[in-house]
């Protein structure tokens, strides 16, 4: 964070004009907004993916009516939730009832502070990063208990208590599995752990030792329990507790729980990626040296003007195509629905055209903008920002995909089974991993 | 028995991992390699059994994943993708065949059908004056279809009967002008000095 603020302060006269503290504040605000946007987007994306996957596993199609391939479904869901009435039970503790969803949201949103998207794309690389992630992960339990208690409802309270028992229990093997990684990397900083896995797939901590593989599976299982997902969704067991801690919530307050729960999937899968799957490291490609001198030369010869003009030329047919598609789509909407006035639809297509042209004009302007030398070159932009981001994101999505698929595979555990899985199996295995990895490191690693 | 317990412990772990892996493989297979059974009904022609409008943005029969994996054609599921030929849909009525014998009306357990008929010249049996089917009541038991001697009342494959107007579900099949015409014809016939059956017989005897 400090580095980012200092860099921007040094580079931009605008920041120097408003002073260092104000600049820091602006940067923080921008980072917060970026995180929240990403957070909401991920929550929405996962609700969509979950429904789609639910359909696919049942040989159905899943949502495909709103937008292309149903991608706008989560926006429609969000609008619906916002428009719903927000009911607070008469006997509920109003303050806590209102506060609880945001606490849950906060617990998840805070994790995004140390989740990296690339070697330089991280809000703050804390030196206790992974420890911080564990702490924020358990932060949500406060919100869940608060929601359960403030609802003044037996089922909600039971759900809250269950979630507390579950999350607190599963925290232990979860932390043990992560400790194995910390032991191996020798650091708790997230970027440090990722950098310790540089140099190819065989250096990922997943393949470091048999104990690491075991630790990965322990982490994976317990993290699902941490985010209250099937098969560990005892806190919201429909058959026993109706809906658990969020039974009394409606409208957007319920939506906030929902978004937090689904963004949590991304958080835990990205922790798995950080700890075991090499983070943003793409074997070979991410490190510049692997490309060889020619690749480097080609990469560095790409200047902003040349790339931008290529983009502009590529954009022209895209604009035409998008406009045509929009017209076709609007005609179709008109045919199907009497609700939308034709004027509105035509206006939308024209707005789209205007927006695309505006983007085109922006690119054209950028072409002649006096760029500062400190801005990353195209080469850097691609290989130090874009490729690592895509690598990290796709790794995390693979893990998240498995988490989503679990839901449609496994039945829910009973409460006593849940506890015995944790205390009788996960925790002893976690200790075995930790001690075993210690010996392994002593014996085989210098 | 400690050793037995320990063996049990590891067997538990092994079995849980094994069963989870099996289950995951099954869901994975189903999700990505099996044809979707959903008929996207309004944009899919269930009578013809093919997509109605290929240009609907989301109405096309195939999804990108299916196209990618080429698995769409491998489906050998139990579901027919079109409405069956002998589907018991809404009742249909073929006026020229009707002899207004009232069998359908009499056999109907819930008075869905109301028929009235008159004799007119040049038509076999009676001609229906009114033939009303109240689709709101019909339970598709098929007794009328079975009892109809001429096949005038039959099942169609049509099933889209939703309406905003409840009364519109009671459908009259004989247009008003046809009914008026038939009433006129039958009235004319009755005004003529109609030969009784006895007279008819005598006529025939005369011929002989």
Describe how the helices and strands are arranged.
The complex is a heterodimer of chains A (about 450) and B (about 210).
Chain A: H1 2-11, H2 13-18, H3 20-57, H4 73-83, H5 94-111, H6 129-150, H7 154-185, H8 190-195, H9 210-226, H10 238-241, H11 251-276, H12 292-301, H13 304-336, H14 342-367, H15 378-407, H16 415-444
Chain B: H1 2-33, E1 44-45, E2 50-51, H2 64-69, E3 91-93, H3 103-107, E4 113-118, E5 127-134, H4 143-147, E6 153-155, E7 170-172, H5 176-191, H6 197-207
Antiparallel strand pairs in B: 1-2, 3-6, 4-5, 5-7
Provide an overview of this structure.
Chain A has helices spanning 2-11, 13-18, 20-57, 73-83, 94-111, 129-150, 154-185, 190-195, 210-226, 238-241, 251-276, 292-301, 304-336, 342-367, 378-407, 415-444. Chain A is mainly alpha-helical and 446 residues long. Chain A has 2 domains: 4-290 and 382-444, no CATH class; 303-376. Chain A is globular. Chain A starts with a helix and ends with a helix. Chain B has 208 residues and is an alpha+beta fold. Chain B folds into 2 domains: 2-69, no CATH class; 91-199, Alpha-Beta Plaits (2-Layer Sandwich), CATH 3.30.70.3270. Chain B has helices at 2-33, 64-69, 103-107, 143-147, 176-191, 197-207, and strands at 44-45, 50-51, 91-93, 113-118, 127-134, 153-155, 170-172. In chain B, strands 4-5-7 form a 3-stranded antiparallel sheet. Chain B has a two-stranded antiparallel ribbon with strand order 1-2. A two-stranded antiparallel sheet of chain B has the order 3-6. In chain B, a hairpin with a 4-residue loop joins β1 and β2. The chains are: A mainly alpha (446), B alpha+beta (208).
């Amino acid at each position: 964070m400090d580095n980012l603020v200092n860099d921007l302060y040094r580079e931009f006269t605008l920041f120097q004009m408003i002073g260092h503290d104000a600049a820091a504040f602006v940067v923080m605000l921008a980072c917060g907004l970026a995180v929240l946007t990403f957070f909401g987007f991920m929550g929405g994306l996962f609700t969509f993916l979950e429904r789609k996957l639910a359909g696919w596993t049942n040989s159905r199609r899943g949502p495909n009516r709103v937008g292309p391939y149903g991608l706008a479904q989560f926006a429609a869901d969000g609008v619906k939730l916002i428009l719903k009435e927000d009911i607070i039970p008469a006997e509920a503790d109003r303050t806590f009832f209102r506060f609880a969803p945001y606490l849950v949201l906060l617990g998840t949103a805070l994790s995004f502070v140390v989740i990296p998207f690339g070697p330089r794309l991280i809000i703050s690389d804390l030196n206790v990063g992974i420890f911080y992630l564990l702490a924020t992960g358990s932060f949500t339990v406060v919100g869940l208990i608060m929601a359960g208690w403030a609802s003044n409802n037996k089922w909600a309270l039971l759900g809250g208590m269950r979630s507390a028992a579950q999350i607190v229990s599963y925290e232990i093997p979860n932390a043990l599995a992560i400790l194995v990684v910390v032991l191996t990397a020798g650091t708790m900083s997230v970027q440090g752990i990722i950098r310790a896995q540089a140099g190819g797939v065989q250096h990922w901590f997943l393949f470091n030792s048999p104990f690491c593989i075991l630790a990965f599976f322990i982490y994976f299982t317990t993290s699902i329990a941490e985010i209250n997902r099937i098969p560990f969704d005892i806190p919201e067991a429909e058959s026993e507790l109706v809906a658990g801690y969020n039974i009394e919530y409606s409208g957007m307050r319920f939506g906030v729980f929902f978004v937090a729960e689904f963004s949590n999937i991304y958080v835990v899968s990205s922790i798995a990626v950080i700890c075991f799957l090499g983070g943003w490291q793409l074997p070979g490609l991410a490190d510049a040296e692997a490309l060889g001198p020619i690749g480097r030369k080609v990469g560095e010869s790409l200047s902003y003007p040349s790339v931008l003009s290529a983009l502009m030329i590529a954009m022209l047919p895209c604009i035409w195509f998008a406009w045509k598609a929009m017209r076709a789509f609007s005609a179709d909407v008109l045919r199907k629905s009497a609700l939308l006035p034709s004027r509105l639809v035509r206006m939308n297509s024209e707005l789209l055209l205007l927006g695309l042209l505006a983007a085109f004009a922006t690119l054209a302007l950028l072409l002649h903008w006096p760029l500062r030398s400190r801005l990353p070159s195209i080469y850097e932009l691609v290989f130090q920002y874009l490729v690592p981001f895509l690598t990290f994101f796709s790794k995390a999505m693979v893990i998240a995909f498995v988490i989503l698929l679990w839901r449609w595979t496994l039945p829910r555990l009973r409460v006593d089974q849940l506890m015995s899985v944790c205390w009788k199996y996960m925790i002893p295995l976690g200790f075995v991993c930790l001690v075993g990895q210690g010996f392994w490191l002593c014996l085989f690693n210098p | 028995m400690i050793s037995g317990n320990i063996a049990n412990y590891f067997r538990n772990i092994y079995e849980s991992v094994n069963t989870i892996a099996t289950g995951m493989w099954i869901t994975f297979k189903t999700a990505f390699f099996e044809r979707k059974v959903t008929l996207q009904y309004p944009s899919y022609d269930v009578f013809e059994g093919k997509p109605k409008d290929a240009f609907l943005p989301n109405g096309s029969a195939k999804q990108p994943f299916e196209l990618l994996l080429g698995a769409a054609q491998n489906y050998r599921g139990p579901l027919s993708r079109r409405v069956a030929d002998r589907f018991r849909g809404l009742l249909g009525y073929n006026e020229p065949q009707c002899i207004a014998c009232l069998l359908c009306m009499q056999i109907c357990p819930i008075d869905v059908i109301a028929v009235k008929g008159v004799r007119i010249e040049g038509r076999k049996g009676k001609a229906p004056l009114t033939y009303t089917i109240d689709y709101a009541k019909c339970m598709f038991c098929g007794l009328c279809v079975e009892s109809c001697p001429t096949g005038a009342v039959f099942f169609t494959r049509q099933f889209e009967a939703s309406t905003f107007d409840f009364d519109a579900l009671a459908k009259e099949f004989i247009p008003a002008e046809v009914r008026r015409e038939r009433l006129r014809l039958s009235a004319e016939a009755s005004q003529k000095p109609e030969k009784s059956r006895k007279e008819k017989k005598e006529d025939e005897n005369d011929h002989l």
